[in-house]
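Model the whole thing, not chain by chain.
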Amino acid sequence: MTDANTEVPGGVPSGPPPSVTAPTVTPVPAPSSWRTSFASADVDTRLFGMIAAIVVIWIAFNVLSGGDFLTARNLWNLSVQSTSIAIMATGMVLIIVSRNIDLSVGSLLGFLGYSMALVQTDGVIAFFNVKIDLGSIGDSSWIWLIALAVGISLGALVGAIQGFIIAYGGVPAFIVTLGGFLVWRGMIFRTGDKQGQTLAPLDSTFRLFGGGPDGSLGEWRSWLFAALGCGLIVLALWLARRRRQRYDLKVRPLWMDTAFGVIGCAVVLAGVGLVANRYISPITGNPTGIAYPVVILIVATLAMTYLARQRRFGRYVYAYGGNPEAAELGGINTRRTVMLTFVLMGVLVGISAAIQTARLNAAVTNLGVQNELDVIAAAVIGGTSFAGGVGTIAGAVLGAVIMQSLRSGMVLLNIDSPSQDIVVGVVLVTAVAIDSTLRLGRRQVALAALVVGLIIAAFVIQTGRA
Amino acid sequence: MRIRRIASAAVVAGLVLAACGSDDDSTSDAPDGTDAAGETEGTDAAGGGEGGDCVVGVSWNNYQEERWAKWDEPALKAAIEAGGGTYVSNDAKSSAETQASNMENLISQGANALVVLAQDGTAVIPAVQDAISQGVPVIAYDRLIEDPDVLYITFDNQLVGEMQAQALFDIQPTGNWVIIKGNSADANADFLRSGAEKVIGEAVAAGDITIVGEDYTDNWDPANAQTTMEQFLSAENNDIQVALVQNDGMAGGAIAALEAQGLAGEVPVSGQDGEQAALNRVALGTQTVDVWKDARELGTAAGEAAVALCGNPDPSAVSGASAFTTPGGNEVSSIFLEPIPITQDNLDVVVDAGWISEEDLCAGVEAGSVAVCP
């Protein structure tokens, strides 16, 4: 098993020492400085860097837009807009960690979204000449659940097919999923006899997946959710601490764990108190609360983190990514592991497809176009390495939030779409450049990359302002 | 080893299935494929037969939108066949390069007139000039090609933009407007915008209308349009009176954003294309206007023109053609068809034309709230 991963459960730093920080620690002799106690306490510095980046981006947009960005409403919007990409990014991390890639997610999202919509509008599951009529079930109030089940199981099936060809057929993932990219977009036009006609409107219960007017927890349930989250953070910190003590590993100073607990709880409570419950629904006049898609994202992030860090499957993925030969010789069923990462990806794409179609209240043929690039970019900005073995779920989610913050912030500033593309591209490369130079301990180069990236982004934003 | 054998067997099985699938496909829903094959044999052997001497090659740019396969192609094909011609076609799958080679391909299949739905109106010019130099006239179908020798047949896109703006302006001639445009690389987005300018330009200059947000949308993507609308609404704290949206897909996204603010039906929204979901929204009252271009009319006009060009390759001699100066300064022969703005008041037009069934149009509409839904 490698030590090259830097997983973090639920966004709270803990776990085995990241190999990245080790070389930067040893040459610094001063024992009492902040930096050393931070580094020796095994804190994921990359994650902190990303959170800092988000804070800087948010403040910058807030200043530029004259206070429009840091409003409860805009942050609530941002949280919903980020979900679809973020959920898929959690799966993409495991795929990239195991040295593969999935280019088919955007097309697959379109295909699954279209299939789910067809169940709702026509009550049929139909491909080519095959048609399964759901009959009276098609009119029942449970149709949303059937549609969801169809989408998710179809996603798992597609993932299994692609994963099988990659893992057992030995065909490179790039090729297989490039094929999938074409196949699933084309399949939209062979789903039902609609020839790509827009399918709308969708079932009213199904629409709750997309947030919207009724798709939120509401005030008191949001507080309950926050309290639960707070409890989980404290529990996770305490369990991690006890586990380390039991194995005689180095334990963080108590003040630091306490500080993490307090800060974590404060962030969760502030998220609900200052954003979700502060955003008053214009329809009901009551506090909106956390949107359902955001709840789904949080649950997915926790589940995927648990899977990646605590379950055997997740450990195998990182072990395989770190060193495929060693993993194979170590007795891991690597093929099965790789195939399962794609099945998981398919399931997550199904969930995202439900969110996107529900949000739009329609299925269209170009749903999810270019999403594969956003998902990969989110994972990579989040610190996932194409060299394999390195990457965190929480990082990928933050990566998605950074990308969406840039996008919606720029729309808020009325910056045209070509400039938006340039800025996101520059940020992507800059983020990875900083990450990889820091890994080599070259701080000056990283700083230079940051400055150059910022200058270009600022220039493009300035010239792109309408 | 065994796994490898199983895998290769699976791959072979897959290929066989794929082959069956494509066979099935060409016989069931793409009769043009069989036509194409029949035609090549036909001209070689019999030198005409039913197809006569006129072979019209159609280069589509993609089927990513609902309309091409469903409305344009059947009408185009019927008009060509009614004129004694033969229809052959291929699909460029949204690639300008593929389209250029597709056009050569059509000429080598014996086409003596081309109908081109351009992926990119500039990049396609070399292929167009190549065709014309071989004596094959070219019709620029629906989208402009900046070449003086083509025949440009389209719905008047500037007029579409004018109609969109006019319908909104009639309801709300003042206040804060947002404009959500299509793909920035598509000339139609700018035609539509300039048409709208004719209607609202004065009011904007006078300060009666303030444009508080305006943006292009990559790929005309409805999900992008939804995000854009959400951001516009946030930035203005919902103080938006009109959303001028350039097509139906994006209008759906914008209306979903309005709905989340309880504003659907209160803020007038425009669209075009006559998508079924959009016409349903017009009946429901959440979309104000859907500028309808009966694609069958366009297909028929192009088919008839193509047959005429087979006889006389001079575009200006085609009946109904008039001179049009393009934004690039070229004088082209063109045929402009007039679109129809569909609002709640004239929904019967689309039903009577067989474009949409009353059932689809009136889904979820309260009985009696619009005349066409009893």
